[in-house]
Each structure stands twice: as structure tokens, then as C-alpha cells.
Design a protein that fits this description.
Length: 97
């Protein structure tokens, strides 16, 4: 799952929005039938520059206590979110310095 999400992020930051959205659709479609991590959905939205969606999905990942949440400060794909006050709030709630 992470590899697919990473590919979606790569498409997004490369300006290949349609390809990124296709991968988002692929991730979200099976969510009704099997678990799809909100962390990976957030990863693609961050790449697309859709901060509100990225934070909404990161919040879901936080609520689910997704283990990768401890990496959001060092994960380069979320670098674009660091300047947003919601990022500081989220990292504080996670317990990150």
C-alpha cells in the first residue's frame, strides 16, 4: 500500500495530477471492502498541495493511531505542511518534540 501511495505522491509533485487522482481513487475504492490507511491517502493529498484534505486524512490516521504518524516531522512528503499551524498542533498531540 505504501508503494502505491508513494507513487501517487510522486505523480502529484511531478504535476501529473490525473495519475495521482487515479491512484487516490484506487486506494479509496477498496476502502469499503478492506482497510486502507488514511496516512497513505494523506500522503497523496499533500503531494497534490491539497492541505485541507491532507490534514483531514492525517487526523483520521491520528485517531486510528497509525504507527507511521511518528514519522510525519521527518517524512519529506509532508514538508509542505510544516508551516501550517495545524501541523504543529498535530505533532504536539502525537507527542513529538
Amino acid at each position: 500500500m505504501r508503494h502505491i501511495a508513494t507513487l501517487g505522491h510522486a505523480y502529484a509533485v511531478a504535476g501529473k495530477r490525473d495519475e495521482a487522482l487515479k491512484i487516490l481513487d484506487e486506494l479509496q475504492r477498496p476502502a469499503a471492502q478492506k482497510y486502507v490507511s488514511p496516512f497513505f491517502v494523506a500522503l497523496i493529498y499533500a503531494g497534490l498541495g491539497e492541505k485541507d484534505q491532507a490534514f483531514a486524512w492525517l487526523e483520521k490516521a491520528y485517531q486510528e493511531r497509525h504507527p507511521y504518524m511518528i514519522l510525519i516531522k521527518v517524512e519529506p512528503v509532508f514538508q509542505s505542511l510544516h508551516s501550517d499551524p495545524r501541523f504543529a498542533d498535530l505533532t504536539r498531540r502525537i507527542g513529538l518534540p
